[in-house]
Amino acid sequence: METITIQANSTPQGVIIALHGWGANAEDLAELAPILNLPNYTKLFVQAPFDHPNVYGGRMWYDFQNPNSNQLAESRSQLKTYIASIVTSESFSHLPVFLLGFSQGGAMTLDVGLELKLAGLISLSGYLHSDIANNAIATPIFTPILIVHGVRDAVVPVIAAQSAKTTLTKLGAKVSYHEFDMGHEINLEAIATVRNFILENSPEITTENTAKIP
Length: 214
Fold this sequence. Notes:
Blueprint lengths: L2 E4 L7 E6 L6 H5 L2 H4 L4 E6 L3 E2 L7 E2 L10 H17 L9 E6 L1 H9 L7 E5 L5 H4 L11 E6 L7 H13 L4 E6 L7 H13 L14
Parallel strand pairs: 2-3, 2-6, 6-7, 7-8, 8-9
Antiparallel strand pairs: 1-3, 4-5
């Protein structure tokens, strides 16, 4: 898959795979890289496979306006193959790999990520696809999950995040849940929460890069 790669400054201590939202693109989400302040993590910002019908340069994982298309299935397949190739690669197989997504990317994170062995899943302003919400999970969920949402989100209402937390907890997942006074966005509080979650779930991290944000 088309990816923007930001290499770790030194020996990598982990990998963050990031999925953008509907109508955005990998470049948009890549702007988070310096703000996350995790220089020793390799960051992979993945481009969704489909052009957005109304936004020039925008991409999407599937079209909300055409629910009968096979785009969701195609994106699932491509992402699973891509992430599996990262997790098993010689460069990254020994490192913790995190999957992060915003909005529709958050939904994809809580979709494909549940079936993969990852260090953590991070959904920002995301939601749960209906088949997963209906408990269509064949195996137990052991991967730690972080859900962050804005109480003023008018695009994906906060009830979607609350519902995702309830469903995933019932399925046995360990969910860390945070609501912030923000809209459909990623503010500094959310970024600090993401950073701390990644550090907490990264084994054998040196003291050079472990200072948590209060």
